[in-house]
Amino acid sequence: MRKLLIGMSLLFAVSINVNAKSINMGEFKLTAYCPCEECSEGYGRQTHSGKSARSNHTIAVDPDVINIGSKVKIGKTIYTAEDVGGKICGDHIDIFFDTHEEVEDFGTKHKNVKVIRKDKKKKKHKKKK
Ligand SMILES: [Zn+2]
What we know:
Blueprint: H1 2-19, E1 22-33, H2 37-40, E2 58-60, E3 71-74, E4 77-83, E5 92-96, H3 100-106, E6 109-116
Parallel strand pairs: 1-5, 2-4
Antiparallel strand pairs: 1-6, 2-5, 3-4, 3-6
The chain binds zinc ion (ZN).
């Protein structure tokens, strides 16, 4: 039991180190979507996370690659991973826009993506024995 506890606290320390900085995810395929029927299949602005999708804010990700709730930097904009999509798999991000015109203008791009860990506050868990 004691060994297990030591192992767990080591894991916790490592995860704090990773949380303190942004993680370069490499180049992703970027596509766009909007609330229209064609893009959202009737979901409109409703996202997987329950939040209403907003332009310059909401992106859809593969939750196996980027956690829902993560801040994601693409170019100069910091987006929030709030949505998922059936076609969004692996190194692919779908960026939310208000209109389908913007979606068509965007097309498909390839850009470098960074994930910024949102919890910069140090968690102080003092466990009593
Ligand atoms: Zn659309």
